[in-house]
Amino acid sequence: MATTAPIEFAFPDIARWQAGSDGARYIHVRKAAASGPTVMVNALTHGNEVSGAIAVDHLLAAGIGPRRGTLILSFANVDAYASFDPAAPFKSRMVDEDFNRVWGRLGQPATTVETRRAEEMRPFVDRTDLLLDLHSMHDDGVPLMLSGPLDKGVAFARRLGAPVDIVRDAGHAAGMRMRDYGGFGDAASPKNALLIETGQHWRASSVTVAKDIVARFLVETGVVDAADVPAGWRQPAPAAQRVVEVTHAIATRTGDFRATRIFEGQEVVARAGTVLGHDDGEPVKTPYDNCVLVMPSANRPLRPGVTVVRLGRFV
Predict the structure, then answer these.
(1) What is the DSSP string of 231-269?
(2) Distance CA 107, CA 293 (A)
(3) Angle of CA points 269, 271, 275, to nearest 5°
(4) Taking each helix axis from N to C terminus, what angle separates 51-62 and 204-221, rounded to the nearest 10 degrees?
(5) The pTM is what?
(6) Are residues 103 and 178 in contact, defined by beta-carbon separation less than 8 angstroms?
(7) Structural domain of 298
(8) How far apart are the first and last CA of the chain?
(9) Do 209 and 198 meet the contact criterion of CB atoms below 8 Å apart?
(10) Tally of CB atoms within 10 A around 298
(11) Cα separation of 270 and 293, whole Å?
(12) How far apart are CA 1 and CA 82, in angstroms?
């Protein structure tokens, strides 16, 4: 698996969307006369994950608004996006810290670019009933819908009907994601959220996936009708979806993880006890038969504490 990919599309100039609603930067609220849910489509949680930004930029430029309820269209870590350098394309993921790990620290002093931006976005996220957070991956891999740990997230992902793989996961030990914040992460709340990984950051196929999922999400939430979706966005649905529950997150202690081979995302390892690699010389083995390798990062240089691979099983 390659650790880099060519940039296959032009990045949108989002500066024209800086003046947003209610004085907020890069956040646009469109309301319908008819009642309905408040729905949010968010891009650029990470500054180098551009496929979602292309979709949101297109929705704004096309003037697409809701027939029912409220539609919020947003770009999150715009400062990271503005720092993009093709010579070092992965560095613009963030400025000071990961924007998608700060949502459990809101209300505390905002001392980083990302915490200040989260506080700016917070009133809009708080009012949102249904959230779609658009992401992409460092490595080439199949699209994944991260539904969170709750039944309601899995059910919502199934209603969208794509992509093939729904990953049921509990988030990250390093901090709360936006998709798990507030009512999104509360089983008793009617609020719901999904996080889509559209594929490798700069593949044209990631843009196709982002547009398809946005179209499905907007129609499923009821804020638009199918006829309102831009032409060519909706793609054929897969024959079936499958759910993978993450049971283990394998992190390297010192960064000295030696994989036994190149890992492929969503690869199924048939036998329990298969050695995947060695961390500081200690073997890391699959805990059960038919173990799924979810979003492996072992194919590139690692830092201490980084998750090497998540292990999951079909449920």
Answers:
(1) TT---PPPS--EEEEEEEEEE-SSS-EEESS---TTEEE
(2) 36
(3) 75
(4) 50
(5) 0.95
(6) yes
(7) 246-314
(8) 27
(9) yes
(10) 25
(11) 11
(12) 28
> Could you report the per-residue pLDDT of 144-163, keeping only the tens digit for each?
999 999 999 999 999 999 99
C-beta separation of 137 from 200 below 8 A: yes
Reduced to 3 states (helix: H, G, I; strand: E, B; else coil), residue 288 is coil
Measured distance CA(243)–CA(301) in Å, rounded: 29
Q: Does residue 211 sit in the same domain as residue 284? A: no
**DSSP for 12-31?**
P-GGGG-B-GGG-BTEEEEE
Same-domain pairing of 275 and 204: no
Q: Are 20 and 118 found together in one domain?
A: yes
List the CATH number of the domain containing 250.
2.40.50.100
- Say which amino acid occupies 88: A
User: Over the stretch 18-46, which tens digit does the pLDDT of each residue have?
Assistant: 999 999 999 999 999 999 999 999 999 99
Indicate the number of domains in the chain: 2
